[in-house]
Amino acid sequence: MKNILYNLKENFKRYDFKIATILLCLSPLISFWSIEMLQGGNIFKLNINAILANIFCYVFVYGILFALIKSTRYTTIIGNILFFIIGVSNHFVAEFRNTPILPSDLRSFKTAASVAGNFTYNFLDYKIIVPFIVLLLVLVISIFNKNYTWKNSLKRNLALVAVFLVVGTTSAVTVYKTDFLKNIGLTVNLWEQNVGYRENGFFASFINNSKFLIVEKPENYDPNTIGQTVLASSDSDKTMEVFSNNVTTQSKKPNIIAIMNESFGDPSVIADFKTNEDYMPFIRNMSENTIKGNMLVSVFGGNTCNSEFEFLTGNSMAFLPAGSIPYQQYVTKPMGNLTSILNEQGYESTAIHPYPGTGWNRNTVYKDFGFSEFYDSEDFVDPSYYRCYISDESSYDKIKEVLEDKSDDKPKFIFNVTIQNHGGYNFGEDVFESDVKITDMKNTTQANQFLSLAKRSDEAFKNLLTYLQGIDEPTIVVFFGDHMPPIEQKFYEEIYTRRGTSLFSLENLEDLQTKFTVPFRIWANYDIEEQDLGTISANYLSSILLNTANLEMSDYNKFLLKLREEIPAMNVNGYIGADGKYYKYDEESPYSDDIKEYEKYQYNNLFDKSHKDEEKFNVSK
C-alpha cells in the first residue's frame, strides 16, 4: 500500500504545477456545481447570464482567498470546504423551512444554532453524498500535489488590493445602484425563494437578495400627509362602530393576555385530511364571548419573531426587504407598539417565553418595546416538557403566577410566546407518544407528532380559560399561531394535491396564502359580542384587540382599522381586497393607493429618524 501511494505521489510530481493550477482554476466551478446540486438545482439548466454571474462570484471569492493565503493547495482546500459547508447548510435550511439561506439569516446565526440540534438530518441524501465524494477527491489531490506559493511583494500586494477594490466597487455599484441584474434576467423571486435560487443560482440569488436590505424612501413620501388619504376616504364612523357591541360597560380596564403559540397552524385550511380524533376541539368550537377567524402571517415554518413584530407594532413585513428580521435589523430604540400604548394607560407589562431570552434579540427588543419584566426559560422552576421544550401548561402556569402577583390597582398586560410545538418532529415514541394519527395518508410521522402536540396545546388553553373564567378581574385573551408547522414536505405535497394544485407551483395567490394562514381567537371572561371575522392579518390584530377592550388607540391603530375596511388581510405575499379578490403588490388594483399610503406610514414609523411623528404611534398619557 505504501508503494502504491509512493508511486502515485511520484507520478504527480511530473505534473505538479499543471495540476495545482488546473485544480485551483476549476475550484470555483466545482463549488458552483456542488452548491447547486445541494440545493436541488442543475447548473446545466441555468441560462448563460446566471451561469456567468455565479462563476464571477465564486472566482472573486477564490481570488480573495488566494491573495490572502498565497498558496495553491490551501486556497483550493479552504475554498472547497467553505462552499461545501455553505451548500450543506443551505440544503438543510431550505428543507426545514422551505426557504434558502438569505442575507438577513447571517444575523440570526445564534438563534439558528440554538435549535439546530433539535432537527433530524439525513446526510445519506445523494445530493450530499455526490458533492462530498467530489470534495474528498479534490482534497486528496491537493494534499498529494505540490504546494505552490506566491512570494510576498509590496508591489504585488498593492496591485492586488487595487484590483480587488476596483472590481469590488464596480460590482457593488452595478448590483446596488443599477438594474443590471434585472436587465440580464436575474430577478429576485419574492414569491418562492427556493425556485428563484434554483433558477438563478445560489450565489447570484444571495447577492441579489442582499440589495433589498436597503429600505428606500417610498415614492412621493411626505411625512406631513401620511395616512390622510385612507382616513379621508373611509367612513368616519364605520370603523369605531365595527366592534361597538363588544365594548365593556365596566369601568375597570381588563387585564390583557396575548398568547402567540409556537407553530400553531391548522393544515386543514389547505385541504381536508382525516384523523382518528380532533386535534383542536376546544379552540375550533369556541363561541361564547369569542371573536374568531383565520389570520395571514408573513412566515412559514420559522422566523417566529416576524409574526410577533407584526402583531405588536401593526407594521407589515410586506414593505420590508425579503428575509428581513426586524427584531435584529430595525428595532434599535424604543418605538410605539401595543406594549407602550398599554403602559401609557396604566398597564404593567410582562413578557414570557420559556426559551433562552437572547433568541431573536428579544431580551433587547422587549426593553425597547416597554416590557418591565421578561421571564425566559431560566425563570421556570421544574416545568413540564414535551420532547425537549417546556410545555404550554407550564408556560400558562407562569401567566397565572404573574396575574396572582400583580398590583391590585393596575391592570396587567402579559405577552406569552410559547415553545412547546417548536419544529423538529422526529422524536421517537419513547420520548413523545403521538396519540393523534392521520388515517388517510401514509408516512406522516412528523405530522402526527405535530397534531398530537397541537391537541395538548388545545387542552392547555382550555385549562387556562377555565382558570380565567373564575377570577374576579375582567380579562381579555388573544390567542394566535405564529406560522404553519415545518412538518414533512410529502405531507404538504399530498394536501396541496388534494387541493388541486402543487406545492412546487403555487402560482395562484389564494393557494399560496393557505401556507401562511393560522387561527386566532379573542376571548373575554365578561360579555362581548360573538363574531367570526373571516380572514384578517397579524398587523391588524393588536388594533382589533385595543378596540375590543375599549381602550385608547394611537392614530396608527385607527389608521389600520380604517385600512382594514378596504384591505381585510395582507402579508408579505399579497393582500385581499374588500371585493374578496387576491392581489399581488406589483399589480394595480382598486386598493393600490391605500397600500402605498400604508407603506409611507410604516416608513415614517421605522426609518424616518428626522421627521417621525411620535404622537401618531402613541397615545396621550
From TrEMBL:
The chain crosses the membrane at residues 15-35, 47-69, 76-94, 128-145, 157-176. Gene3D superfamilies: Alkaline Phosphatase, subunit A. GO terms for cellular component: plasma membrane. It is a multi-pass membrane protein. It is found in: Cell membrane. The keyword Membrane applies. Pfam families: Sulfatase. InterPro entries: Alkaline_phosphatase_core_sf, OpgB/LTA_synthase_biosynth, Sulfatase_N. Keywords: Cell membrane, Membrane, Transmembrane, Transmembrane helix. Residues 254-549 form the Sulfatase N-terminal domain. Pathway: Cell wall biogenesis; lipoteichoic acid biosynthesis. PANTHER family: LIPOTEICHOIC ACID SYNTHASE, PHOSPHOGLYCEROL TRANSFERASE I. This is Lipoteichoic acid synthase. It comes from Clostridium neonatale.
